[in-house]
Amino acid sequence: MPPAPAIRLRGAVKRYGPITAVAGLNLDVPTGTCVGLLGPNGAGKSTTMRLLTAQAIADEGEIEVLGRTLPGDSKAARAFMGVVPQQDNLDEALTVEQNLLVFTYLYRVARAERKPAIERALQLAKLTDRRASKVDELSGGMRRRLLIARALVHRPQLLLLDEPTVGLDPQVRQELWALIGALRAEGVSMLMSTHYIEEAARLADTVTIMAEGRAVAAGAPRELVTKHAGRDAVEVYGPPPRLAEVEAHAHARGWAVRRTGTSVSILGAEALDGDLPEGERRAANLEDVFVLLTGEEIE
Fold first, then answer.
1. Element (H, E) at 48
2. CA nearest to 51, candidates 89, 88, 31, 24
3. Which domain holds residue 253?
4. Domain co-membership, 128 together with 265
5. 81-84 vs 158-162, strand pairing mode
6. Could you read off the pLDDT of 241-270 as tens digits, one per residue?
7. Residue 40's beta-bridge partner residues?
8. Does some domain include residue 293?
9. Residue partners of 290: CB distance under 8 A and separation at least 6
10. Average pLDDT, stretch 214-231?
11. pTM for the whole thing?
12. Do 132 and 29 share a structural domain?
């Protein structure tokens, strides 16, 4: 029998007054996998993360984390969970090593295991040579790596990453991708909300796309592309009147089309007839799927 999923949500609902932030969400994170949570602002990604840490309590539905039912067993679940928040909440009055030490106490790491746990976390995050640095002396990328190291100091079974690379430049983002990829290879279960399509496509075993508090699609990135966008796309560039003409032509024939500010992409082009407009042929991708299903551009 396969192990129970690290995360299981069924019909989860969270309302804030008249606003329904999560609207009947079903979500699974199989043990030992990384699931990417994609969606535009307001889709319910951060609220979902709050439900999983019991910072918010669901109004309806079932939530299980590491075999424990929330919110009743949330304290037991959190003991085996690491959380990397979207907002940097490091203690700037402490050094790198002291920040990690505090969390060994919070997670009740045994006294004899604290030093090895800190050393392992420092090595994973490549911060060994900055152990004595105050947090306010670190770059943005180092601070994000420290947030991840802090979440790993007690060897969690599950890691929640809420926009782990938000606001970072591409080079630093690549460094964090390498760290997350190494954890994935170790078999740590992960749920990662992100605004970056490439991040989800590169790191996640499966992706769940959210819109208006619901999951509108879920599956392996390549499978989602094949199902919703096909193999090829024809991308047409030109002035706005030309793009409007191409878009109208595509809609009249029932073709899947993606409009951006500078181009129109006709999806599933490999299956269409010879009436296609001239344009640049390219492979369909996960961003095409995201825009097609949510109507939103993503960073």
1. helix 45-52
2. 24
3. 231-283
4. no
5. parallel
6. 999 999 999 999 999 999 888 899 999 999
7. none
8. no
9. 38, 197, 209, 296, 298
10. 96
11. 0.90
12. yes
Do residues 43 and 161 share a domain? yes
Distances (CA, A) of 253 to 67, 203, 234: 49, 36, 15
Whichever domain contains 63, its CATH number is 3.40.50.300
Q: Which of 205, 223, 241 is the last residue of a domain?
A: 223
Identity of the residue numbered 77 = A
Q: What single-letter DSSP state applies at residue 188?
A: -
Domain shared by 204 and 180, yes or no:
yes
How many Å apart are CA 198 and CA 137, to the nearest integer?
30
Rg from Cα positions in the chain: 22
Q: What is the pLDDT of residues 33-47, one digit of tens each?
A: 999 999 998 899 999
Nearest to 47 by CA among 19, 5, 72: 19
The structure tokens listed for 175 are 């460094």
276 shares its domain with 204: no
Give the sign of the dihedral formed by CA 215, CA 218, CA 221, CA 226.
negative
231, 222, 218, 182 alpha-carbon torsion, rounded to 10°: -160
C-alpha dist (Å) from residue 284 to 163, 201, 248: 25, 13, 20
